[in-house]
Design a protein that fits this description.
It is built from 5 helices and 7 strands, in the order H-E-E-E-H-E-H-E-H-E-E-H. The chain is of the alpha+beta class. The strands form 2 sheets. The protein has a 4-stranded mixed beta sheet with strand order 4-3-6-7. Strands 2-1-5 form a 3-stranded antiparallel beta sheet, with no helix packed on it. Helix 2 packs parallel to helix 5.
Length: 187
């Protein structure tokens, strides 16, 4: 083999290895950046980030500051999610108990607010839809999970967040039913 041909092949091989290394390091940087915490994604034990939105039914502006002084639940639903649609009867049922106990429930659409509103139009939950911009929704629920919840205590601290139906959700609904029973029986 000619020495100049060998040098060209080695040069081309060296260039392709260097370029491959560059692309690999670039990909690692991009993927690593994806793990970085969003500016105000919710973290258990920390305060719920400040946000603003509007109430779907009447257009009233609302801020996260209005949640202070009371426990609250934010629920993220998607109209295209069968599990979300299956949870609507449960949400309707617990919303009455929550209202009596002074614990607001806010429903946030992961995708289409109008589609969620259509599924809730015959219930009190229609008045509980909170419209948030895309960046705020993604910051509160980075994975756009549904049916997803965030529990916030009276001081605005996130106490739990996960998919509806997990252990914390089941404990919460059990406590709601127990408190409702105590109220109804006068105990």
């Amino acid at each position: 083999m000619d020495s100049s041909l060998t040098q060209i092949v080695l040069l081309a091989l060296s260039f392709s290895v260097a370029f491959n290394l560059f692309l690999t390091l670039r990909l690692i940087a991009i993927v690593g950046a994806g793990r970085a915490r969003l500016p105000f994604s919710v973290v258990i034990g920390e305060r719920l980030p400040n946000f603003h939105g509007k109430v779907y039914s009447n257009g009233r502006l609302m801020t996260s500051g209005e949640l202070l002084g009371q426990a609250a639940v934010l629920v993220f639903l998607s109209a295209g999610c069968d599990k979300c649609m299956a949870r609507i009867p449960e949400l309707k049922q617990i919303s009455h108990a929550m209202e009596r106990l002074g614990v607001p429930l806010w429903v946030i659409a992961v995708d289409s607010t109008r589609n969620i509103a259509r599924h809730l139009e015959d219930s009190v939950l229609l008045q509980k839809i909170l419209v948030l911009d895309l960046l705020t929704r993604q910051a509160l629920n980075p994975g756009s999970a549904a049916p997803f919840y965030i529990f916030v205590d009276h001081g605005g601290t996130v106490q739990a967040r996960d998919l509806i139906g997990d252990e914390n959700w089941l404990l919460f609904t059990r406590q709601l039913h127990e408190d409702q029973t105590r109220i109804e029986t006068g105990q």
